[in-house]
Amino acid sequence: MATPLSDTPLSPLKTVAVVGLGTMGTGIAEVLVRAGRDVIGIDVSEAAAAQAVATLEASTARAVRREHLSDAERTDALARFRTFTDLAAAADADLVIEVTPESYDIKQQVFRALDGIVRPEAILATGTNALSVTRLAADSARPERVLGLHFFNPAPAMKLVEVVSSVLTAPTAVSAVTDLALELGKEPVAVGDRPGFVADGLLFGYLNQAAAMYEAKYASREDIDAAMKLGCGLPMGPLALLDLIGVDTARTVLEAMYAESHDRLHAPAPILKQLSEAGLTGRKSGRGFYSYEAPGSDAVVRDALTPLEGSVLAEGRSIRSVGVAGSGTMASGIAEVFAKAGYEVVLAARTEEKAGTAKARIGKSLSRSVDKGRMTAEAAARTLELITPTGSYDDFADVDLALEAVAEDLEIKQQLFGTFDKVCKPGAILATTTSSLPVVACARATSRPQDVIGMHFFNPAPAMKLVEVVRTVLTADDVHATVREVCAKIRKHPVDCGDRAGFIVNALLFPYLNNAIKMVQEHYASLDDIDAAMKLGGGYPMGPFELLDVVGLDVSLAIEKVLHREFRDPGLAPAPLLEHLVAAGCLGRKTGRGFREYARR
C-alpha cells in the first residue's frame, strides 16, 4: 500500500513532464526550462512535438537578441527540453502538468494512464480553466496528489498562476507547486475548485454579457470595445478578446460555468454557439466578431459591418456656447474640457459662491497642466477667461448646449430640465450626464424631448477620453449628429448606445464587480488574491476591490440596484456583503474604510 502523500516528504520538483504541446503547453515548457528545470514534453502528435521544439528555439533566440538570455543559457535551456510521443516518458517526473484539450474524456484518460506510470510521490496537475479538478482527482488512484495549476496565455509573459485545490488535495502538494510557481517568477494565488476559478470565473461572465449586448444590437462591436478600453483602461475590448481566446473556447468555459452555477449570466449567449458552429472561432480561423487578414493574424480588416469613416449622420446644429449646471468635480471637469476646446462656458450652480469655487477648482487644474508642461500659462489664462460662473440658470438663455452634472437623483434632474425648458432658447440642445437614470425621463420633463440627449462623461473628465452618447426614442437625428461633432471638437471618443440602465460601461462593469464580491462573501478567495488575479491574469489596471473602494460602495450599490431593477435578472441582485458594508457606513476611500481600511488624510 502506498504511503499517503501527506506523510511523505516531497522531493524538489526538478523534473517536470508537460503533457500536450500546444501553445499553452509549449509556453509552460519554456518557463520551466528557462528556470533550470528538466522538461519532458509529451504529445501524441510528432508534428506537435517538433513544432514545440521549433517554437522554443525561436523564442529563446529572440530572448538572446533582446539580451534577456545569454547564448550559453539558451543552449542549456534547450538541452533541458526533450520530447516524446508516449506517456511512459513521464515515469521519472516529480510533477506532471497536463495541458490537453478541455474534455473530461481526454483528461481522465491521461490521468488514468499516468496512475500506472508515475512514482507514488509524483504530483499530477491539470491546466484546465473550465473543468472540475475534483472530478479529475476522484478518478485518480491517488487523488490527494492531484491539483490544478492554471497558467495564463502567453505563459512566458503572464505572471499569474492559479493553484487550485480540491477537497481531496494534500496541503503538501499545494505547498510544493506554490513554491515552484514562485521560483518560476510567477505570482501564485490559491483558489478553490469551481469552473473558471477566479480570473476566468469573473472574466468570462463579463465577456458573455458583452457578446449578448452586441447580439441584441444595442451597440456596435467597435463601440462596445472602445467603451471598455477607454472607460475602464482595459488593454482589449471584450469582443476582440473573445476572438483572441477563441469563440469556441469561451463557449466551452461558459457551458462548464453554467452547469455549475445555473446563473443566467453564465449561460452562453446564442451568438457564441452560432459563430462556433459556423467555424467563425476568432483569430485562429480568420473571422469571429471581427474579420482578420488571415487565420492566425491579429490584423483586423474591413468587412460588411465596419462603419464607414467620415460618414455624415445628419447636418448638425451650430454650437458656440455651452452651459454646465453643477458645482462638483464632474461639472467643473466638463466645463474645463469645453473651455480648453475654445467654447464659451457658463458654469451655473445653486449659488454664485459655489460656482466661483468650481471655477477656482478649474484654475488649479489648469495650473497643474502648466506645471507639467501640457499647456502654456497664456493658454491656461485664456481658457479660464472663457468660463463665466453664475448662481442663476437664467444665464443659460443664450447657450447652444445646456448640460447638467448635478446629483444622480431623477427628481432633481427632472426639475432642472424643467428649468432648462423655460430659460434655454429654441433649438438649444439639452443634455444629461447621468450614468444610470433613464434619459427619456429627463426629456419628458420638457416640452421639447427631441432636443434631449445623454452625454455620459467619465471621471476625471479632462483625462478620460470616453463619452457615451445616449439617444432616446425621441431624440432628433440632428441633435445626435451635433453631439458626435462636439465630442470630436473636445477631443473625446463618442460611443453610441440606447437609453437603458448602465449604458455600455456600467452595464458590463458592475455585474463583474458584484460577482467578485460574491466570491469573497462565499469565502472562495481572498480580496488580495482576487485583485491580483484580475490585474495579472486579466490586464485590469485595478483589482475589483480597489476599484469599488475608489468608486464608492454606495455609488456601486445604487448602480447595481438600477441594473437589477431594469433587467430583472436574479444574477444582478446586489451581493448582501455590499449592502451590509454600505449600511455600516463603510463606503470606501472617502470614509476611510470599505473593503479595506485607509489611513485618514
Automatic annotation (TrEMBL):
SUPFAM superfamilies: 6-phosphogluconate dehydrogenase C-terminal domain-like, NAD(P)-binding Rossmann-fold domains. Signal peptide: none annotated. InterPro entries: 3-OHacyl-CoA_DH_NAD-bd, 3HC_DH_C, 6-PGluconate_DH-like_C_sf, 6PGD_dom2, NAD(P)-bd_dom_sf. Keywords: Oxidoreductase. GO terms for molecular function: 3-hydroxybutyryl-CoA dehydrogenase activity; NAD+ binding. Residues 15-193, 322-499 form the 3-hydroxyacyl-CoA dehydrogenase NAD binding domain. GO terms for biological process: fatty acid beta-oxidation. Residues 196-292, 502-598 form the 3-hydroxyacyl-CoA dehydrogenase C-terminal domain. Gene3D superfamilies: N-(1-d-carboxylethyl)-l-norvaline Dehydrogenase, domain 2 (1.10.1040.10), NAD(P)-binding Rossmann-like Domain (3.40.50.720). Pathway: Lipid metabolism; butanoate metabolism. Belongs to the 3-hydroxyacyl-CoA dehydrogenase family. PANTHER family: 3-HYDROXYACYL-COA DEHYDROGENASE FAMILY PROTEIN (PTHR48075), 3-HYDROXYBUTYRYL-COA DEHYDROGENASE (PTHR48075:SF9). This is 3-hydroxybutyryl-CoA dehydrogenase.
